[in-house]
Amino acid sequence: xxxxxFLWLLTATLLVHTPLAIAQQPKKIPRVGFVSPGDSPxxxxxxxxxxxxxxELGYVDGKNVIVEYRGADGKNERYPxxxxxxxxxxxxxxxxxxxxxxxxxxxxxxxxxxxxxxGGDPVRAGLIASLAHPGGNVTGLxxxxxxxxxxxxxILKEVVPHTTTVAVLKNREGGVDSLKETNGVARALGIxxxxxxxxxxxxxxxxxxxxxxxHVDALVVLPSPMLVNRRTGIVQFAAGKKLPAIYPNSExxxxxxxxxxxxxxxxxxxxxxxxxxxxxxxAKPADLPLEQPTKFELVINLKTANQIRLTIPPNVLxxxxxxxx
Length: 325
Fold this sequence. Notes:
Layout: H1 3-24, E1 31-36, H2 45-56, E2 66-71, H3 79-89, E3 93-96, H4 99-108, E4 114-116, E5 138-140, H5 145-159, E6 165-171, H6 176-189, E7 192-198, H7 204-211, E8 218-221, H8 225-228, H9 231-240, E9 245-247, H10 250-254, E10 259-263, H11 265-280, E11 296-301, H12 302-307, H13 314-317, E12 322-324
Parallel strand pairs: 1-2, 1-3, 3-4, 4-5, 6-7, 6-8, 8-9, 9-10, 11-12
Antiparallel strand pairs: 10-11
């Protein structure tokens, strides 16, 4: 074959097949990092809610999106390492709940979008400029845990009207804003607060027995991933002392806690998937306003009420979103 004819034929072949080859190249599947205060994806309701939100938007884990789960087991000091692993994997987005998790992600990367699925006041924590105009690489939702702390004390007063002295259980390493909110409501209600602080190294049963004043009418537990992960011991202590208690999320009530009141965290994590979808389609976190909760959940455990011989007032019971019998 004439060399000129051969070159012409080769060029024509390449021109015909190159677009086809490009079109046949597999599309890169986006990878989302999910950092949870839990310890296992099999038993993490937050993760289940997030995956449900993704499915509602057409994303299936392992098919058209890959979700990398990392659990902190309620320990804030683990977040930097977990986030570093996700950054090393080259995730497109990091989804996390706690302020400590968001801060670790923000410190690890100013380029990777971060979706805050729940947590404290991100403006007060310095994570964003404002809810309406976050700026930077953080957006998502807040669960208003500090603002709801005072509301929990009000509900507890309704449940146990004679309450005058309440023990407040707090993580020694945090919860300052929640305590401040609770103090303000306590003054208005004429309630005396007795502070109990637990650290990571404290044995729950021993610490609560030693630190809880003998003459208290009830117990309020402040929001804390560390305390949530130790909820079984906390709930058992309250039941053993026949101490009415209110908790900052439904995991406590599910474990036998008397009453819980909080933003519906499952709904927040389901809605976090909407932010992931928008970002994967090109939206910038800086331009996506943060949302506040729209659903709240009051859970009452009547089994526990009967165990500690407490009658829940009908007006409170009627407002419950869920009753455990």
